[in-house]
Amino acid sequence: MVALLTPLEAPVEPTEALRRIAFLLERNRAGTYRVEAFRNAVKALKEIGDDELEERVEAGTLQEIHGIGKSTSAVVEEAARGELPAYLESLQDKSGGPLASGGEDLYAALRGDCHLHSDWSDGGSPIDEMVLTGIELGHEWMVLTDHSPQLRVANGLTVERLTKQLAIVDAINRGVGEAFRLFKGIEVDILDDGALDQTDAMLAQLDLVTASVHSKLRMNSAPMTKRMVAAVLNPRVNVLGHCTGRLVEGSRGKRPQSDFDARAVFEACLEGDTAVEINSRPERQDPPDELIELALEIGCLFSIDSDAHAPGQLDMKAYGCERAERLGVPWDRIVTTWDADRLHAWANPSR
Ligand SMILES: [Zn+2]
Ligand SMILES: [Zn+2]
C-alpha cells in the first residue's frame, strides 16, 4: 500500500481536485456534511460534461448547478484556470502528512482490507468510488462488507439487495482488470444466540464474512462468551470484527468494552480459523492492547481493517498498523498482508 498519496500539483482536473479534498477531509475525520459538499460536486460535474463546465466557468454561473456551492465553485474555477485550488493546497500542507507515526513498513506491506462499507448500507460513497480510491492507495484487493438486515439504522442489506450488490461487484471486477479484486462480503451481525443475521445460502455465495456484535453489547459475560464463540466457530465466519465494541473517543461518545471471556473467544478463533480484527478506527481502537497481546499469545490470525465508511477512511489502516507493529504482531499472521489468492483460499477452504 502506498504510505502517502503524492500531493497534487497544477494543473489539476476540477473533479480530481474535489475528490482529493474529500479524501483528505475524510482521512482526517471531518464531519460528513462538510465532505458531502465536495463529493456531491464531483457528481454534479460528471453530469454536465466538459463543454458546459467551460461555459459556466467563463460566465461565472457554476453555482446555478444543483450540488455546487460557494466553496466548491471556487475550487472548480481555480482548477479550470490551471491553478492549484487554494483550499486543496492548504489541506495538502496541513493534513496531507502521515496519520500515524510507527508502523509505516507494515502499512506498506498491507495488500487488502476485510471490512469497509459503501452507500448501500451506512457508508457515504458508492462502491466504485471506494474501489477507485482503494486502487489509488495501492490495494490489491478489498472485501465489500456492508451491514446485514437486522441493523436497520445502518440500512442493512436484505437477501434481495445483497444479491443485487453481488452482480455489481461482478461488473466492477470485469471493469478494473487483473491487478485488483473486489471480493464479495458482509459485516454480518452476530445475533443474541450466536447465529448470524443472514441466510446460510446467501453467506455461501460470499468470498469472506466479517462478523460483529452490534446489539445487546451489555449482555452478561457468560451468554456473551457463548454468543461470540458460536459465531467464530461458524465455518462461514472468517473475521471477528471490533470484538469488544468499545468506543474510546469521538462524536458518538464513549462506550465500555463488552464483558466476555477473551481467552475462550480467541481460542475458538484459533480453532475456527477466524482472524481477530484490529479495527483501525480511532474511536474504536479495538481490541485494546492487552487483548491483542492475548490473541497473539494464543496464536490467532489478525486482520488489520479500516472499517471505512468513506473512501478517505481506507487510509486509517495506518493507525492499526502502528498498534500491530508496536505490539509485535508478525506480518505473516496478518491476513491483510496476504495476496488475493492466498486470502481467498484461506477464506474458502472447501472451494
Ligand atoms: Zn461494525
Ligand atoms: Zn463496519
TrEMBL record:
<dbReference type="Pfam" id="PF14716">
    <property type="entry name" value="HHH_8"/>
</dbReference>
<dbReference type="InterPro" id="IPR010996">
    <property type="entry name" value="HHH_MUS81"/>
</dbReference>
<dbReference type="GO" id="GO:0042578">
    <property type="term" value="F:phosphoric ester hydrolase activity"/>
</dbReference>
<dbReference type="InterPro" id="IPR050243">
    <property type="entry name" value="PHP_phosphatase"/>
</dbReference>
<dbReference type="InterPro" id="IPR003141">
    <property type="entry name" value="Pol/His_phosphatase_N"/>
</dbReference>
<protein>
    <submittedName>
        <fullName>PHP domain-containing protein</fullName>
    </submittedName>
</protein>
<feature type="domain" description="Polymerase/histidinol phosphatase N-terminal">
    <location>
        <begin position="112"/>
        <end position="192"/>
    </location>
</feature>
<dbReference type="InterPro" id="IPR047967">
    <property type="entry name" value="PolX_PHP"/>
</dbReference>
<dbReference type="InterPro" id="IPR027421">
    <property type="entry name" value="DNA_pol_lamdba_lyase_dom_sf"/>
</dbReference>
<dbReference type="Pfam" id="PF02811">
    <property type="entry name" value="PHP"/>
</dbReference>
<dbReference type="GO" id="GO:0008270">
    <property type="term" value="F:zinc ion binding"/>
</dbReference>
<dbReference type="InterPro" id="IPR016195">
    <property type="entry name" value="Pol/histidinol_Pase-like"/>
</dbReference>
<dbReference type="InterPro" id="IPR017078">
    <property type="entry name" value="UCP036978_PHPhdr"/>
</dbReference>
<dbReference type="InterPro" id="IPR004013">
    <property type="entry name" value="PHP_dom"/>
</dbReference>
<dbReference type="GO" id="GO:0005829">
    <property type="term" value="C:cytosol"/>
</dbReference>
